[in-house]
Specification:
Blueprint (H helix, E strand, L loop, with lengths): L6 E11 L4 E4 L6 E4 L7 H7 L7 E6 L13 E5 L14 E6 L2 E10 L3 E5 L9 E12 L2 H6 L13
Antiparallel strand pairs: 1-2, 1-3, 1-9, 4-9, 5-8, 6-7, 7-8
Length: about 160
């Protein structure tokens, strides 16, 4: 079977900066499972895997545009500390969910002053060229329920409400 839209795919992979600094890996854990065509993977990796079969090994370098996108200065903002009502301690590095015009988005605190908080809604790997190395370990047709939910389910079902 080849990877195509609505295939449930399992891959083992590692991702690193192109200079070799490792960032993440499934090496000592379960493979990553996703449904092809749902934009779960970065665009360049999903495109690379289209049409491939179990056993396909990949080693690709992706520019930022094909990975997590370019760094966008407009996603860095300074907001009033009063927006964090109910949060006693706000520290650099904390993450929060923010409601935006594009829907919910994770923002990271980058600076804190007495009256304001600087937040960054860019993905932590935005603006970076990345290298993905791995192997396709399983492919099967996704179920109708998985396609409707947009993700692969564990045996026995989804495990959470939609």
């Amino acid at each position: 079977m080849k990877i195509e839209k609505n295939s449930a795919v399992s891959i083992h992979f590692g991702v690193a900066e192109v200079d070799g600094n490792p960032l993440d890996s499934t090496e000592n854990g379960s493979p990553l499972e996703y449904i092809q065509g749902t934009q779960f993977l970065v665009p360049g990796l999903e495109k690379e895997l289209e049409g491939k079969e179990v056993g396909y090994k990949f080693d690709i370098k992706l520019e930022a545009e094909d990975a997590y996108g370019p760094f966008q200065e407009e996603l860095v903002q300074e907001v009033p500390r009063t927006l964090f009502e109910g949060v006693d301690e706000i520290e650099v590095g904390m993450s929060f969910q923010a409601e935006t015009e594009q829907g919910p988005r994770t923002v990271e605190v980058t600076a804190v002053s007495e009256d304001n908080v600087s937040i960054d809604a860019n993905h932590p790997l935005a603006g970076m060229a990345l290298q993905f190395v791995g192997e396709v370990v399983a492919i099967r047709p996704a179920t109708a329920e998985e396609i409707a939910h947009g993700h692969v389910h564990a045996p026995g079902g989804c495990g959470h409400a939609h």
